[in-house]
Design a protein that fits this description.
The chain is of the alpha+beta class. It is built from nine helices and 20 strands. It folds into two domains: 155 residues, 3-Layer(bba) Sandwich (FAD/NAD(P)-binding domain), CATH 3.50.50.60; 144 residues, D-Amino Acid Oxidase, subunit A, domain 2 (D-Amino Acid Oxidase, Chain A, domain 2), CATH 3.30.9. The longest helix is centred in the N-terminal third of the chain and has 21 residues. Bound molecules: flavin-adenine dinucleotide.
Amino acid sequence: MSYSGTVVVGGGVIGLSIAVRLAADRSVTLLDPAPARGASWVAGGMLAPVTESWPGEEDLLELGCASLARWPEFAADLGVELRTDGTAVAALDAADAAQLDILADHLATLGRAVDRLTGRELRKREPAVGPSVRSGLMVPGDLAVDNRELLRGLVSAAARAGVTFDRRCAQVVEPGSVRLAGGEVIRCGTTVIAAGAWSGGLHPALDQLVRPVKGEILRLRARPGVLPLTHTVRALVESRPVYLVPRKGDELVLGATQYEAGFDTEVTAGGVHRLLDDAERVVPGIAEYGLTETAAGLRAGSRDNLPLVGPLEPGVLVAAGHHRNGLLLAPITAAAVRAMIAGEDPPAEVLAADPARHVPTRR
Ligand SMILES: Cc1cc2nc3c(=O)[nH]c(=O)nc-3n(C[C@H](O)[C@H](O)[C@H](O)COP(=O)(O)OP(=O)(O)OC[C@H]3O[C@@H](n4cnc5c(N)ncnc54)[C@H](O)[C@@H]3O)c2cc1C
């Protein structure tokens, strides 16, 4: 069997975004036994490069900010709404407050000053935050998206653009072909490996570069009478990160744990307990919410937290390893892959994500 154009392996937010971009000027097949699921279905939906940043990860901050700038147009093209209220960041104990100071100092040195607030000042801006919060920050530029609405928008856009969905599972990607589980070989032009945490098994160069990082997350429903959140709230609770992302309507997403647990996607009682306990210390009203869903997903971890976006060998590209930021980085990743395949320069911020920083590649 053969496909004349490009085959994208993996139909999470990254593969779908790439397929939609590529389909504007070439024929595209998307290979995935379960498209629009994976980590992308589970995720929190924060588009938050600034509150994710940390000293030493300046390239990731630049990449994230460049992608954030593309989000309003990306969302409008897909007919997907964005939340623009920004993020309230909260610290519980003295060590948590010290961590927020490090983040605020770091951002100031990069010229990205944020508002430092006392606990009382933070509560004025976000009344759902409780009295145990010691200090905080307000980050106005962050956005948030309903990841499931986004995936529905991408699947519709891909179908409209003529992308062929092939629900088979890839096993190995080689120049000019993809071997399927079961042994059949598909001949094709270019292949893009975009299979998230599973990408490491699809090409020998990715074997040690992409690993699964488990994350548990909860979905809650505001019951009548509870005080709704007006911003995304991120917090450190005795050094453990927790976040709450309000959705349109009454949904609230509460995440997320982070473990190195291989391909395990079972939700544990301990994970749910920890998330609810930490969230309640930040937003006491959370105990009155209904619990509607628990889920676990696999982030695609990389060695340096930057994704891998670029050629591996002639006719084979990778777009994986987006770790905690795959939704945020989808627009710039798709633009970069389109440019690389068209022989154009990708956005400059993507050069830091070249897989050649870790493994020899052939162009
Ligand atoms: C709990 C949690 C919360 C998160 N919150 C956020 C957030 O707030 N903001 C943010 O930006 N990011 C967040 N992330 C990270 C984000 O979800 C990921 O970075 C992003 O979804 C990665 O997208 P992807 O398309 O690379 O992978 P995935 O969404 O995992 O998709 C991979 C796809 O590849 C397919 N596939 C696998 N193997 C094969 C194969 N052999 N052949 C064909 N297809 C295959 C799978 O079926 C799947 O559809 C979160 C992740 C988790 C787990």
